[in-house]
Amino acid sequence: MQGFRALPSVDQVLTAPEGLALVAEYGRLAVVTAIRARLEIAREKIRGGADGAALAAGLPREVAEDLAIAARSGLRPVLNLTGTMLHTNLGRAILAGEAVRAATVAMANPLALEFDLAGGGRGQRDDHLRGLLRELTAAEDATIVNNNAAAVLIALNTLAEGREAIVSRGELIEIGGAFRMPDIMARAGAKLVEIGTTNRTHPRDYENAIGSETGVILKVHTSNYRIEGFTAEVPAPQLAAIARKAGVPLLNDLGSGSLVDLSAFGLRREPTVEEAVAEGADLVTFSGDKLLGGPQAGFIVGRKDLIAAINRNPLKRAVRLDKIRIAALEATLKLYRDPDRLAERLPTLRFLARPEAEIAAQAARLAPAVDTLLAPHGFSAAACPCKSQVGSGALPVDTIPSAGLRLAGTGGDAPDRLSARLRALSVPVIGHIRDGALVLDLRCLDRDDALLEALAAL
Ligand SMILES: *Cc1c(COP(=O)(O)O)cnc(C)c1O
After folding, report:
1. Does the beta carbon of 149 lie inside 6 Å of ligand 1?
2. How many whole angstroms separate alpha carbon 320 and alpha carbon 144?
3. Going along 114-153, which residue ranges are E strands?
């Protein structure tokens, strides 16, 4: 019983100086709850024979730690050193400063979202982006929804509900999770008409499939895989001609889509959105947070009458964007008006544009310091070459030469053990395991200090 009497009361902990400081930081209710929980654990330990006085002495510190952990958000920033620049599980693109500021203003203020300041009447939320999208893609019109999955869903539903949607067997892709083209078509109410084979689809396959029930021809960018060898697909301009002749709209889902030619960054030449529009697609869909470098969003650009039909679809309200993202998108798209400075201002392109030699120099600079930080824990660090990829399904087989740190230790489970410890840091460091070591690709590391500070907490 002596043990229990050594424990303080809730009130004693609460009114001690440490307790008052915790109340000021976290609020009374949270602190009382944390003290009660710790006292309960202490009583349990005393029943098991532990020393009450020692438990009482450690209690304020434990309560403070519990509160700090509870306050720490699961959404806290991490260092993405995975080598995948647009990592879907790490939130894809990080925004340009201009976009962050615009979003912050939108969050904290009422704004003319659907309000025509000139006339005082009702406005359209998409109007803030329509002009910019038309300018940047040379499309007749544009509409914006929650993400590209929603863009494909609402476009298919508008064009082909209760009718047929023709698509090549080579393009019936799964993007990941539950996003599979055939399932999206079914949910859109369209009847899937598969044509061609996995590796080859010809113009006559499309021509033979078109009939009175056809609502749309869908072309899907096979963004996350590539078929090589004996292959044939119908080039977009030719497919557009077939669609036009039959009077059927052609929807081209570009997936990532880019507003600039990425071959300048050493990536494979892919049609830009503007080129996809020029090739004759009636509608083109693409993502806001992949290579475009903005917040999550889905864009649909193309024929005015079809965009108007999409905007009349009741689904539009269910997949519309909020003011915060509209503000961030407007600021992001405006950066594209100045292509010369784009790679400086847009983080996605800045990371993509970093020369291998610059990253290798960073790796050489950081290796000794990181090695020193890891040595007491039984791990070593050395600079190494590695390969980055874009991620989010964009350009799956293309890699970009990069450099990083190879972190090694003894024992087959060393990379997993180290990986778990780096994930547990207050700024988690996320790498990827390759050839028995944990590799940190430095392409997306803006500041050396950020890594050193994070690892110092080991
Ligand atoms: C990524 C992708 C999608 C889905 O886009 P989200 O913006 O993630 O919703 C759809 N189609 C293709 C071809 C894609 O690459």
Report:
1. yes
2. 7
3. 141-145
Q: What is the pTM of this model?
A: 0.89
Residues 6-58: pLDDT tens digits?
Answer: 999 999 999 999 999 999 999 999 999 999 999 999 999 999 999 999 999 99
3-state secondary structure of 285: strand
Q: What would the pLDDT profile of 71-112 be if each residue is shown by its tens digit?
A: 888 888 999 999 999 999 999 999 999 999 999 999 999 999
Q: Domain check: are 297 and 359 in the same one?
A: no
332 and 230 belong to one structural domain? yes
Do 282 and 339 lie in one domain? The reply is yes
Question: Is residue 54 located within the same domain as residue 126?
Answer: no
Say whether both 190 and 320 belong to one domain. yes
Ligand 1 binding pocket includes 285 (Cβ within 6 Å): no
Pairing of strands 379-388, 400-409: antiparallel
- The best mutation among 153, 175, 180 to test binding of ligand 1, ranked by most ligand atoms within 8 Å of the C-beta, falls on 175
Ligand 1 in reach of 252 Cβ (< 6 A): no
175 lines ligand 1 (CB under 6 A): yes
Contact between 289 and 148 (Cβ < 8 Å): no
Domain end (from 290, 317, 345): 345
In angstroms and rounded to an integer, the radius of gyration of the C-alpha atoms of the chain is 28
Domain span at residue 417 reads: 79-89+352-456
Q: How far is the CA of 114 from the centre of ligand 1 (A)?
A: 28
pLDDT value at 396 more than 70: no
> Is 70 exceeded by the pLDDT of residue 1?
no
Cα of 350 to ligand 1 centre, how many Å? 22
Domain count, the chain: 3
